[in-house]
Amino acid sequence: MSTDRAPETPRTDAAVQPNRLYKPSYDITPRYEMPLVPVSGAVQLHDESDPVVWVPDAYGRMIPMRRSAAPGPMQPMPPRDLSPQPLLDPRAQMIAAGGVLAAGTGWGIGQALAPLAGVGAGGLMWIALAVVGWKLAPSLTRGGGTVERHEHHTHVTNTNRGFGRSTTNVNH
Question: For residue range 92-147, what is the model confidence (pLDDT) as tens digits?
Fold first, then answer.
């Protein structure tokens, strides 16, 4: 068998029968031409032009690997930001403060309006009677429309002496 070209399959009607409509006008069988001059020296395949490098594996041993498949060189780490960071996110602090303010306001309003929850119809009646009594009391105690004025003057004298001795005099 000759190695100068690929073996040809015979073109028979049986081989072409499934597709009767398509018949190429040229032969589509690939041809591989061999060089006329014999080559001597090291054989290097077309895909092996990439140099081989030695890289450490997971256990620390050096293994050969193509340069294109080897991992890239280690990049230096960027400098760390050592400035102090807040304990809580400032936005989260504002949201939490708003919630605390709303809760505190609601609790305070609830404490201020809690006594009104105990006031029923009877309580309102007693408040109305107290207001009426407060308005009528001065006119009932006066004895009509006349007003009697009594003036009382009280003079208090307090004398303090040493060792906690005090004397108080009240003059009417």
Answer: 889 988 999 899 898 988 888 887 777 777 788 888 999 999 888 877 776 555 66
Which residues contact residue 6 at a Cβ distance below 8 angstroms, ignoring those fewer than 6 apart?
Answer: 29, 30, 31, 32
Q: According to the 3-state scheme, what is the secondary structure of the chain?
A: CCCCCCCCCCCCHHHHCCCCCCCCCCCCCCCCCCCCCCCCCCCCCHHHCCCEEEEECCCCCEEEEECCCCCCCCCCCCCCCCCCCCCCCHHHHHHHHHHHHHHHHHHHHHHHHHHHHCCCHHHHHHHHHHHHHHHHHHHHHCCCCCCCCCCCCCEEEEEECHHHCEEEEEEC
Contact 66, 50 (CB under 8 A): yes
pLDDT tops 90 at residue 149: no
Q: Which amino acid is at 142?
A: R
Amino acid occupying residue 138:
P
The predicted-structure confidence for 129-140, as pLDDT tens digits, reads as follows 999 998 888 777
